Amino acid sequence: MPACAAETCSLCQGIGGLGHLGIQFARQMGFHTVAIGRGSDKEKLAKELGAHVYIDIAVDDAAAALQRMGGARAILATAPSGAAMGPLVSGLATHGKLIVVEYRRIRSN
Question: Using CA atoms, how far apart are residues 72 and 81, in angstroms rounded to an integer?
Fold first, then answer.
């Protein structure tokens, strides 16, 4: 797995509706962009969107992989689940930020 200096490492958790935007923005902003998802079928899309690295949580511990790269400066968490987000905190660099983003459709009666 390529090295990633904490100053330039950004991780996008999830490659769905919000995650795909996060990957593109992080790449365009000059971050070494790491995408995380479950399943090897998402790797191609993640890399087409701009991820330098894809971590498949079905086969690798995301936090450990991030620490091997020096830790993430920021993690954009788009999967609104404490079970999915909680373990990623260990992948943050010192003073790293966990940013939780969720989209909810508001229905009017």
Answer: 19
Domain boundaries, the chain: 9-100
DSSP string across 36-56 = EESSGGGHHHHHHHT-SEEEE
State the CATH class of domain 9-100: alpha beta
Using alpha carbons only, give the angle 39, 1, 22 rounded to the nearest 5 degrees. 60
Q: Where do we find the tokens 């490492």?
A: 9
- Tens of pLDDT, residue by residue over 6-22, are 555 677 677 877 888 88
**pTM, 2 dp:** 0.82
